[in-house]
Amino acid sequence: MVNAIPHKLLKRASFSQCPPPPGSNTPLPKLEVSISPDPPVAGQKVKFSVSGKFSKDITEQTKLGVAFVDTNQNPIEPPTVVDACTGSGCPIKAGDSYNQTAEVPVPDTLPNQYIIGVAVGDSESEGLGCAYTLVK
């Protein structure tokens, strides 16, 4: 008998490119995102590692946002927004590699299926990069 031990598949987050923003046919560049722990644990913190290259500079006005939403795209809690660029590493010139980690609180209650959205942008643009995953 081979592989007779029961095996439970865990939820895993595999991030994909976001669809185009409203009013556009062009999607934003895909962010590379990994999280730990994977899957997130309700009521705890999750570490996001985010990277990408953008066509515009990342400045002190640029933000990194993380949102947990249900499958109807209703926010489970307000999104977490942090500075995408701070200190001596700022600004990051267009075309250079962007790498950031951020610890984000996970909502206390998560539905069986939910979406995590991650975006980088500022008030002067519709966004610079985006990724999302359906956790089920």
UniProtKB/TrEMBL annotation:
SUPFAM superfamilies, per database record: E set domains (SSF81296)
Domain named MD-2-related lipid-recognition: residues: 15-135
Taxonomic lineage from the root: Eukaryota, Fungi, Fungi incertae sedis, Mucoromycota, Glomeromycotina
InterPro entries on file: Ig_E-set, ML_dom
The organism's place on the tree of life at top rank: Eukaryota
Name of the protein described by the UniProt record: Phosphatidylglycerol/phosphatidylinositol transfer protein
Positions of region (Disordered): 13-35
Signal peptide bounds: none
Organism whose genome encodes this protein: Funneliformis geosporum
